[in-house]
Amino acid sequence: MQAAKYKVGEKVKVLKAYPLGHIRTPYYIRGCVGEVERICGAFPNPEELAQMRDGLPPLPLYRVRFRQKEVWPDYRGSDRDVLEVEIFEHWLDRA
Amino acid sequence: MKDHGKYQPLSYFQLMETTLRELLVEKGIMTSEQIDAEVEEMRARTPERGARVVARAWVDAAFKSKLLKDGSGACQDLGLEIPGLKLVVVENTPEVHNAIVCTLCSCYPRVLLGIPPDWYKSRNYRSRMVREPRTVLAEFGLKIPENVAIRVHDSTADMRYMVLPMRPAGTEGWPEERLATLVNRDSMIGVALPLSATARLQI
Q1: Which residues on neighbouring strands pair with residue B96, listed in sequence order?
Q2: Taking CB atoms and an 8 Å cutoff, what residues of chain A touch B157?
Q3: For B74, what's the count of Cα atoms within 13 Å in the CB-facing half-sphere?
């Protein structure tokens, strides 16, 4: 297993990329900045698994916490409302 | 109502399922007994399993702290195997309300909650729950006060989520089995609260 590049609490930015294929990074969160909530472990890359390959080595998977008001500028609700999404390391960059 | 007396050709997916099942058996990959056993196992998974976990967490602080740290491990202690994926249990408090969605497909903690309800798989719920959770929860009849933060969990990859709801007031001293009867499926998805102590008395 690859050592996780980001630490809990670190600010990360989701890549704004649009590759083809089976992608587990939702469109709405691409380009958003959040904070690592936890490191989930390492899991085979789903983009590779979908192509019938083994997806190895496993990639670190993070749960990233985003402030709703940063994801949706016109969000109606509390400033403290958040959204948590699982994102694989190759979709993240330092913010 | 369907007229069961009338001949109906198999639908596309029924035909595909039958063909695949027969091929698996014919090629010796699985036996029909193994397939039947798996279907039975699927039927046996109901939200009562999740309710057992919640009720245990309400009465046993050590179990609860393990459950929040290592959901799969804690469930294993209760004899519930969570194969292949990690269970993350998120706790509701007076300050935070949690809710679960899968925007990409319909990932759901089937091991603990059984087969997901149709609305969980609908585009309406999946697209709006991350965008306007307060409105969606209100449509379920759940009005979250502005001073309580909402934390929405989008299960996009290998984790599965379950909400640990708050223990209803007035249930002090209740045994675990009785507490479990208050824990409904929707409260473990986060779109409802558990039944109240008085609601259960009225049933």
Answers
A1: B149
A2: 24, 40, 43, 46, 61, 86-88
A3: 24
Q: Which residues of B touch A14 (CB under 8 A)?
A: none
Percentage above 70 pLDDT, chain A: 98
- Digit-coded pLDDT (tens) for B77-135: 999 988 767 899 999 999 999 999 999 988 999 999 999 999 999 999 999 999 999 99
The DSSP bridge pattern shows strands B149-154 and A59-67 to be: unpaired
In chain B, what is the greatest distance between 2 CA atoms, to the nearest angstrom? 60
pTM: 0.89
Whose CA is closest to B148, among A79, A76, A68?
A79
Q: ipTM of the predicted structure?
A: 0.95
Q: Nearest chain A residue to B88 by CA: give it.
A: A40
**Cα(B187)–Cα(B138) distance, integer angstroms:** 14
